[in-house]
Amino acid sequence: MAIRVTVWGENIHEHTNQIVRKNYPNSMHSTIATALNRDGGIIATPVTLQDTDHGLTNSKISETDVLIWWGHIAHDQVSDTIVKRITHAVWSGMGAIFLHSAHFSKPFKSLMGAPCNLIWRNCGEKEKLWGIASGHPIAAGLPNYFELKHEEMYGEPFGVPEPLETVFISWFAGGEVFRSGLTYRRGRGKIFYFRPGDENYPTYHDVNVQRVITNAVKWVYNSSPRLEGATADCCEHRL
Asked: Other CB atoms closer than 10 Å to residue 142's CB: what's the count?
């Protein structure tokens, strides 16, 4: 059975920023979904902030094995009702992948129980991503490191809980380092945070980035039936 992936996109920059339109004429979320659909074991569909229930109706969530989230300038526009729907789905077994500035999204902060703050600088500098978890499935098929010629810098300290594993560390031309690939578990759900993906650069066209996301989908996927009635409410104090 194919893994059913929902790729959530804020879908604002594509309509307001000429650079983003040039980098992603079919949108960032559709670019990610298209890359995933090249894998015969994945069926990915995009949804956006502007869709009914932000594209995440109860039926859509129930049909989603893995949710991928990209957001940036409209975190506050995401309904708290939808956030609760997402977090409950993760606790019950849905996998979740948060990309780049989704570190500050409501669903990620809810699942982390932390401020998720960091330092940043956006001047399009070189980034090297080093795989430091030898043999981890998310790093399968990748070189020891790969480069992105232009990206936004994220730097430590990163205000998140200690992860289960740190799969990637980034080094930037300005000298900063950052934990760029982190894994977590919440209840029956697996979570992966992956740093690259500023909208001003064509990062999601990079074959290594696409490989990471494809591998991550397979890692966070839970083949067991969703645990009905699971809730994060009783466990928030443990985050």
From this structure: 19
